[in-house]
Specification:
The protein has about 270 residues and is α/β, with parallel strands linked by helices. About 35% of the residues lie in helices and about 25% in strands. It has 10 helices and 8 strands. Strands 1, 2, 3, 4, 5, 6, 7 and 8 form an 8-stranded mixed β-sheet that branches. Helix 4 (about 50-55) links the parallel strand 1 and strand 2.
Length: about 270
Amino acid sequence: MTSKEQKWDAQHYDGKMGFVAKLGAGVLELLDARPEERVLDLGCGTGALTNELASRGAQVEGIDLSEEMIEAAKANYPHIPFAVEDAHSYRADAPFDAVFSNAALHWMRQPERVIEAVAANLRPGGRFAAEFGGADNVSAIVSAIGGVLEERFGIDADSRNPWYYPTIGEYASLLERQGFRVLSAEHFDRPTPLPEGDRGLRNWLDTFAGIFFAGLTESEREEAYREIEERARPKLYRDGCWYGDYRRLRILAVLKTPRARSHSARSEV
């Protein structure tokens, strides 16, 4: 699930950033979807993990805000229902047993509305399993982008930042306010190799960070990329490979069952 400003090339995403789906295996195991359960994949992208859920017997549906991603998902997995929908406001016709999300929630800048929508789409007792960028995710990359854009082009990178990276406490509190009980929460480092050797960071910038460079000419963008690489290299490049300094937040929560109202005299006082 992406912000409306972010443009996606689904073929580039699958070809260059296939590790995103592969690294979703952990949160799939956390969800532990059972056969015949109805599961919503929130921010499904091109559908790889949606299909994995289906292969485990779940009755799965996928939504994403990107038309390009959904077109690719439908082409890749025509047996699964996919739809272009906004996770901030989506309401399904029938409740789900579980909602799953991988590498998507950090693109959604109004988390209260997203969690409200998740709760509205779950049956009481339903599960919410998600992994996404947590506090300080890709901080070295963001710092290099911000420094280059401000110093070379007078651009305030913070005003263009499309991501929401919360702490455990922040996100768990939002879940609890919407009636969830948080079963587990983990914030962990996961340095992630970026494919294609010396081009790894460029591929990552092309895929995920295009909004930062809006308005730059091709030559200015090339200049920015070179300087970002120079600044980030001491922290993120080793043994011929770029690494993304990923810090992920992995959450499992259950929507609490509403308590039945007591009809005792005491309750009516």
